[in-house]
Amino acid sequence: MDLSGQTIDGKYQLVSIAGEGGMATVYKGFIRGAAGFQRSVAVKHIRPEFRALKNYVDMFVEEARVGSELAHPNIVQVHDFCAEAGSYFLIMEWVDGIDLGGFIKSYRDQQKLVPWPLAVAVGIGTLRGLGAAHDRVSADGTPAPVIHRDISPHNVLLGINGVVKLSDFGLAKARDRMASMTAPGTVKGKLSYLAPEVAFGKPNSVQSDLFGVGNILWETLTGERLFDGKTDVEIFKKIRTCAVPAISDRRNDVPAALIAVLDMALAADPANRYGSADEFAHALGQVMKQAVGVNAATALGQAVSAARKQLKDDEDDNLSTTERAAGNSRDIEFSTADIGVEPVELTQRATSQQLTTPNIKRQPTPPPVPPDKKK
Ligand SMILES: Nc1ncnc2c1ncn2[C@@H]1O[C@H](COP(=O)(O)OP(=O)(O)O)[C@@H](O)[C@H]1O
Ligand SMILES: [Mg+2]
The whole model's pTM is what? Predict the structure, then answer.
């Protein structure tokens, strides 16, 4: 069902589908004001099939309300919540860019790895937004932390201006409930981002969110899912074991300090992780000092633009089967040399075969690492 062209609540005009997730379709839209004023918005249409769910509306109103209270430059702002013809819409700030999942994919498609300073910049931005939610206080000043619960590459939006914004605050609970009423595996791809203790049945916490950030940073640096498998059960087992493969087996340019930060963030025991998002962000900030002469926001913005163009070109190529038949493999020129960050060519260990299959799997037995490269 494509609602493009419709107007919601008399003021939000839907232009086109921007993305689809497990429980909603996101549209690019705009709101018109007086004197030709116009502003882009993202309109999230909650899938109507979930209407049968008990307390469906209450759940969204409550969670959208909590989400909309959070105001921070690194959090996607929720503006409004509307009902129209029995359907529900969340109106959010529009982020002109791509999500981190697309960003990682673009590098993978080109058989490149994300320059580590860009991964660090994504981490710091995500953690600033997350920290603001964790540090939330209620009107009377008592701590009222908001746990995100669904840190995953699709919920980290990257703007072509280099801004990092975390989205979908407060919607994870709703997603869980929906997942439990749909067939197993319907809400795809999210399982991989659970923290080990959550996979053992403990509730989500500040520390499980921080593990999530460690997880997406590991994926950004390697181009691979940290915990992957053919079945949910297989993935689940890997999460519980919390075996984190060494990044140095996949690329050798990542500073030891960054590897140490990720080791801490991805500790199996929550007590051994960072105490807060701010602490984790500070540690990444220290690592960033090694990227001398890099303006992270500018570099990230340029990389996001290039990645978006590459994904779009690829999509266009895929539509043109005649071109494909003629063997038109388009070379995408993307150099970050001018911003002082060179995308790293794949090491021989990350084979090109691994990078051309859509579901990259870790090599079951990584090749031996020379003693000097061992963490
Ligand atoms: N505020 C926004 N601005 C621009 N694009 C967005 C925004 N929110 C979501 N999107 C895009 O829409 C896609 C679907 O979003 P969502 O329904 O949250 O699904 P999921 O998080 O499960 O992937 C996202 O992956 C993202 O690419
Ligand atoms: Mg999302």
Answer: 0.83
